[in-house]
From TrEMBL, chains A, B:
Gene3D superfamilies: PurM-like C-terminal domain, PurM-like, N-terminal domain. Catalyzes the ATP-dependent phosphorylation of thiamine-monophosphate (TMP) to form thiamine-pyrophosphate (TPP), the active form of vitamin B1. Reaction mechanism of ThiL seems to utilize a direct, inline transfer of the gamma-phosphate of ATP to TMP rather than a phosphorylated enzyme intermediate. It comes from Cecembia rubra. Mg(2+) 1 binds at residues 53-54, 131. It catalyses: thiamine phosphate + ATP = thiamine diphosphate + ADP. Residues 36-148 form the PurM-like N-terminal domain. This is Thiamine-monophosphate kinase. Pathway: Cofactor biosynthesis; thiamine diphosphate biosynthesis; thiamine diphosphate from thiamine phosphate: step 1/1.
Length: 342, 342
């Protein structure tokens, strides 16, 4: 065949997604928000529904040589709940589809579903449907989550305004560092199966990778404190990458401060041990599933004392660019790397 | 490890699904119907939302050696629209997730999306989200469809009543016969690549397999005629298997008549040519995506003259069993085989 062949790598993951999205046509006025945020938003009378979906493949998104199936199930739900949280909505229902080969036993499937059901209970969501089918190769999990909020509560990526304060929850970089530890121990084990993986001193970071938490606690607290962020995302691809998304959607710039970035001690120490720059892990490590949001300055006093919300910088004009102010006081241009699967 | 290992094949596909569903807990009153019908139903004010999802894997659900990617994309949407139709609802939004390896070019992905977008236009649904990711092996497509209806319009599998008339749309067995033709021509091609597949005389049946239509036309017509079926399903696993589902959900029996079963001439002739019993194809052939529904006798006159709705039998008491009356007048017990992927 003489047909043109363009490699996907020529566009990259985000390039491919943009390329495909260009052709999408929206026909229904009830589709308030289609592609382009953490979740889609559908009008539904007094409330709106938010819808988000994730497709997880063995060997790409998880490695069963170190990820217990129960954790894989929990995480598959949590990452979707996190996207609902990022819209400032409350998750209500999920569908779960799985494809698996006969390599998996009923007991293995039960372990997977134990995690799915534990997450459903933890986040109070109903498993309302799904599809169970055969796979010729690895395990495939597809979860769709549906959440609910009042229309005026929904927070998009596009609402950040100049002088807003940039907030992140929890600490960052742990999931990436945890992944590096797990990969290292896997290689050690593969080269010498008698070696037992030493994971005890890495419990925090490996848990961040294997069993992340969606920050629904923060969403409920923001409601109690009557704070509606001006923009919000969850941090799945890395802080820098997510800041770029908010800047693009909101037509703003950002300045963040290295000494304000939250990093856990075990994450820091392990990053150093692995020869990684801790700040790079914080900026570009994915899968932390913490929340990144911006608030109006008038709301600052309501969150000021919150032990798990960190104020890392402020929103600036678009033409002022995107900067990281280092501990030495130098302003360095932020770079978004994100995660590349292709 | 001395852990117990139960093979999935010991439970079978439906057994595994039942086993997993036993542990599902429903927490929200807005979840009107969870697992167990063509789609889930969520309360949403005046209207309800129906939600359905399908996971399709290359090598299991489609074979790219004869299925053009455009058709694969169209079909992935159509099968979900068909599930929404089977609830007597109107599809409004879909999410589409794909996983693909670098074996696929941008042009190939474009062909897939051309089919997805053509189906979105054809069925008037908005593509509102999704996930695009890498795969280590074949193409994976996960579609979730969301539809809408008034609560009183929703038709479950569970509403069939004794003496209701059993209806099917279109004709049956074509998709299975089409699959057999495509598989035969593939084997011919594999054993001699110089042979060109002879598919012209099989256009109807191969189209039934490669590019099925969801019967939204019937759903709209039923509304115009003010007929609300008492129960409804789409025929994805085969007529006999779907009748078993309705009997189980409605606590009824059925009697259907061989001479009333709709079969297209090309399907009949090709089945005979392939050495298959045409009636077996009609009863157990999957993927036709026609509608199976029951109506109250009072509604019969409204549909009597419809050229594409066939009246194949009636609902009986549960204790009367499930029977097929053959052309010779013998009543034979119906067997549900369905499709087995495991």
């Amino acid at each position: 065949m003489s047909e043109k062949r363009t490699e996907i790598s020529a566009l990259g993951e985000f390039g491919l997604i943009d390329h495909l999205n260009e052709k999408i046509v929206i026909r229904h006025s009830s589709t308030l928000k289609g592609i382009g945020d953490d979740a889609a938003v559908i009008d539904s009378g007094e409330h709106v529904k938010v819808v988000t979906t994730d497709l997880l493949l063995e060997g790409v998104h998880f490695d069963l040589s170190y990820a217990p199936l129960t954790h894989v199930g929990f995480k598959a739900v949590a990452v979707n709940v996190s996207d609902v949280a990022a819209m400032n909505a409350i998750p209500k229902q999920i569908t779960v589809s799985i494809a698996l080969s006969n390599r998996f036993s009923v007991e293995a499937v039960d372990a997977l579903y134990a995690g799915i059901n534990a997450a459903a209970e933890h986040y109070s969501v109903d498993v309302i449907g799904g599809d169970t089918t055969a796979s010729r190769s690895g395990l495939v999990i597809s979860v769709t989550a549906i959440g609910e909020a009042k229309k005026e509560q929904i927070v998009y990526r596009s609402g950040a305004k100049v002088n807003d304060i940039i907030c992140v929850t929890g600490d960052l970089g742990g999931a990436l560092v945890g992944l590096q530890v797990l990969e290292r121990e896997k290689q050690v084990f593969l080269s010498n199966p008698d070696m037992k993986p030493e994971l005890e001193k890495y419990q925090i970071v490996t848990a961040r990778q294997l069993r992340p938490e969606a920050r629904m606690d923060i969403i409920h607290e923001l409601r109690e404190l009557e704070v509606i962020p001006t923009s919000m995302m969850d941090i799945s691809d890395g802080l820098a990458s997510e800041l770029f998304h908010i800047c693009k959607a909101s037509n703003v710039g950002v300045t963040i401060y290295e000494d304000k970035l939250p990093i856990d001690k075990q994450t820091f120490d392990t990053a150093v041990e692995l020869g990684l720059d801790p700040i790079t892990c914080v900026l570009n490590g994915g899968e932390d599933y913490e929340l990144l949001f911006t608030i109006d300055q008038k709301d600052f006093h309501k969150l000021e004392k919150h032990p798990d919300i960190h104020f890392i910088g402020h929103v600036s004009k678009e033409e002022d660019g995107k900067y990281l102010v280092t501990k030495s006081g130098t302003a360095a241009q932020l770079k978004a790397q994100g995660w590349k699967h292709f």
